[in-house]
Write the structure tokens for this entry.
Amino acid sequence: MEKIKVKICQGTTCFVMGGSVTKAIQDVLAEKYADTVEILPVRCLEACHENDSFSQAPYIYIDDEIVPSATVEKVISIIESKLKHD
Amino acid sequence: MTNAPEIETKKLKREILIRLIKAFMSDNFEENVRLIPYDMRPKGSEVPFRCCIYKERAILRSRTIAGLGFAMEEDDERTLLSDFAKRALERKQPESEPLTVLQNACKGCPSARVFVTELCQNCVAKPCMKACNFGAIRNNGKRSIIDEEKCKKCGMCMNACPYHAIVKTVVPCEEACPVGAIAKGEDGFAHIDKEKCISCGKCVSACPFGATHAKSQVIDVLSKIKQGKEVIAMFAPALVGHLPCSAEQFIEAFKKVGFSDVYEVAQGADTTIQVEAHDLAERLEQGAPFMTTSCCAAYNELIKKHIPEIKPYVSDAHTPLYYTAEIVKKEHPNAETVFISPCFAKRKEALDNPNVNNVLNFEELGAIFIAFGIEVDTCESKEYKFKSSKEARDFPLSGGVARSVQAAWKGDPDALKPGIINGLTKATVRDLKMYAKTGKCPLGNLIEVMSCEGGCIAGNAGLNTVKMALKKVTDYSAQSYSLKDTK
């Protein structure tokens, strides 16, 4: 089975608005989902550049889906539903 | 310490700063500032935190006032935000007190009290009643009850209960303040007593409503840059741990904002280290029992306002910021200097030092980079003119200052006994008073004092987790030479 790709933004906006959150997400994924999820730290993918969209940072990208205002709970729930679906 | 509950309040404060800076960069600053609460909570939008959209906007309006650098307490609630924005542009000097309390975000938490919960088993022994020295506990036949009038909140009953059925509630800001400077007034809302406040910022991190704010100088700094002045950034070594890029990339990142040059405050730390090591050697030779460090701004305020008797035991060395600013002003006599700081207390230090014109904290710097659209990790790497030592770059770590003096120590290594006060609390403040009074310190003879637990990397305006910041700072300092090798 192909792993779920989770891109974790290392850009300035996501770091300032929620660096501790993205770090927590990365830690949880590495610890609990190592077999099913591939973590890819990425540079800014510019979801934060439109008008007021900076306020929705941090962003996480799960396969083709953009997750705004990312939290550990949100990301896990999306991954869990993807795993069930497969 | 950076932890989860404060993320929401920190995000709110940062979002306001970003919007303020964007407004400043627009062609209609005043009007766009006025609109900030409406842009953040437009008609029909969700109401995430408060009772209604109007209260949300009222609170965002107050937070914007702090972002503009004014005291929220002095707001008459009828002045337009656009008028505050105009006044911010006209301001020549930042306000003297760094912190301000937003009273309409301050919930007026219930006063601290000790309370018997329904978990009371109405036991036969009644250890709670026996433990109380004030006769404040009675029993109504079903459970123990505390008489609020008589209770001294000592917590003896709480410790005595074998069921842990008695709890003590606290007011988070009062609990966090090491010097009793913030307290609920008769109106039920928190007030800061500026005669007592040491600007440590612990209340800012402690309040789950985000009611305490720093008065920002972001508009003051950006105005100077816009006017074409020569503005120089001097960054605290802790910054290395709090941006998603390398220290060598800071120079270009700052220049994109409009700063003309960038200095590491670690450069001044190298002077502090030498002066402090020399100072200690002299004092020990003259028979002094101990010496404390002198670089933490909140500790220096504590000495001034609460423990003047400890002054004879405090090193005469100036802070790294002091020496760095002196160098910068010598090299650039017409420059405006801006200290980039993880902490709020440094604003107080800057007010007393004509060589430091403004202070921005890490959150404000982060907001500037976002508003300017600067991706720091894509900036070009450049070398600093002055290469600071490993020890100077480790200054923001708990134990880092003591270790630096040890590294520069020229005397008998066994004569030096470092001790560390890692964080100012009510208890450590009591300890310091005791050391001053008795002229003895059981911790050692070189006492490093830092207000924030973990050191400056754990400052109240930090952006990263302390653990990650620690790793980045030590990775960076490891690239530099050690003072141990240059003795």
Q: What stands out?
A: The interface with chain A takes residues 2, 4, 7, 11, 14-15, 18, 39-40, 243-244, 363, 366-367, 369-370, 373-378, 463-465, 468 of chain B (CB under 8 Å). Residues 37 and 57 of chain B are 5 Å apart (CA to CA). DSSP finds 20 helices and 15 strands in chain B. The first strand of chain B starts at residue 99 and ends at 101.
